[in-house]
Amino acid sequence: MSIEINLPEVLDDVTAAFYRYEQALTGNDIEVLDELFWHDARTVRYGASENLYGIEQIREFRAARPSSGLDRQVQNTVITTYGRDMAVASTEFRRAGTEKIGRQMQTWLRTEQGWRIVAAHVSLMV
């Protein structure tokens, strides 16, 4: 089996979805954040201090988290697509006032509704 890596049109689509998510995250646009996660009980998001299983727990977390101090700068972003329907996005981020480097990985899947995050992990380097 041969999988085509980084087909240009697929990479463009996932890159746009990734940066749309980033804009929604720093702007606390909960509606777009919810839209971009797969609405399924099997969706997983491991955060810096929480493990969330299923879209309902992810929604509850988003609704309860503070809406300030979300600005960050991303760096070393790598997006790789596998065929036409799957991708992984990895990035580092920094927030003002701290030297800590954050890391974020997302697994994206093309669904009937468009590209959606099916798994995510966020952590901070100590």
From TrEMBL:
InterPro entries: AtzH-like (IPR024507), NTF2-like_dom_sf (IPR032710). It comes from the Bacteria. It holds the Pfam family AtzH-like. Coiled coil: none annotated. NCBIfam families: HpxZ. This is Oxalurate catabolism protein HpxZ.
